[in-house]
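During the first year of the project, the team set up a workflow for recording each protein of interest as an amino acid sequence followed immediately by a discrete structure-token representation. This format lets reviewers and collaborators read both layers of information side by side without switching files. As required by the reporting guidelines, we include two representative entries from the current panel. The first entry is reproduced here exactly as it appears in our internal archive.
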Amino acid sequence: MNALAIVGSRNPNGQTARATDAFLQGIEAEGGAVERVFLPAGRFERCRQCDENGWGICRSDGRCVIEDDFAPLVERIRAADVVLFATPVYFSDLSESLRAFTDRLRRTCMNETGKAGIREKRTFGICVAGGGGGGAPACCTSLDRVLRTCGFDLVDTVPVRRQNLEMKLGTLRAAGRALACY
């Protein structure tokens, strides 16, 4: 099994990275190979809403006209057996980098060509809230909505708060193991 983690956090040692690592450790424990992509380290523009109707070739061709790291990452998603989306929670929602990526992905997936290799791809989500942590469930709902719109087979989303991170690390390892055997 090959797992790809798409992480919307700038901090490779922070809480979101720790939660991601726990999930991926579970996959590795079952013999899976893992790869991590930290979105803020790449070149990902926001959607330009190309034409006067707010669309572009994303709708007609299932691809994006912007030449940055988006298309190569979508190909890596297609090649993976399972994809993890992990994000810190900002204002009860996805990080800006994950939002920019998923907004463009959702648009390309409105076309059958764009959805190819993504439809029914197993995926998992982790939303990690600092502060009071109350926004993690709302963030999971947002992530669930966008991933299902893209056509992913979303196995689960896990809300994590800084207050329960240590407890959730074991849960995430177990989830990674289970998904590797799924």
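The second entry, processed by the same pipeline in the following quarter, appears below.
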Amino acid sequence: MILGKQGAGKGTQAERLAQHHAVPRISTGDMFRAAVKADTEAGRRARSYMDDGELVPDEAVLDLVGERLSADDAQDGFVLDGFPRNVHQAEALEELLGEGGVDLVLELAVPTDVVLRRLAGRRVCTNCGTNFSVEHPPSNDWACDRCGGDVVERDDDTKAAIKRRLSLYERETEPLVAWYLAKDKLAAVDGTGHPDSVTSRLLRAVDSRIGAVARQARGQG
């Protein structure tokens, strides 16, 4: 899973990691936005929180994640993006996954001023949810390179909502760093620079963990 301040490029990097390892990227934000777009009961409940920059209540998120992780395509691995957001969710995830829990948590370290700039420039496809930015726009007049959908500014990327999300991150999500560090499951990665460079750093961190696990297994064998 990838941990980082809102707008720290998590969505793009999570998608790249998922594609590299041929596993699904599971984003709670994308799932709730799809529910809002479809005007489902879950979407209507979530919208009031999302529009105000609030986090959707744990119970609703846990139900959504549990259902998604039971799908066939998630049985051979996955990349979590936007979950867990607090220690309670992390504890529930460990229980849900059973022995071993998550393999690795990647913390994208990005200065707050960079996060704010990225959020202000973030754009998203209304159809498939692919992320773009004013610095890295789609190639054809704000039509998504993946599906051709309209690429627009997110409704919850207002200045007030951004400030609220950053405040919530500091209060609820930052403690996860210490929680996963204590479990020796955290790798901090520099999230600044060109996206390709960030992806390379993330892949090295994952490969390093895979190698360490393999060495440990051989030592116990």
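For the second entry, the following points were noted during internal review. The chain has one domain: 2-112+159-220. The helical segments are 10-21, 28-37, 41-51, 58-69, 87-97, 112-121, 159-182, 195-220. Both points are flagged for discussion at the upcoming steering committee meeting.
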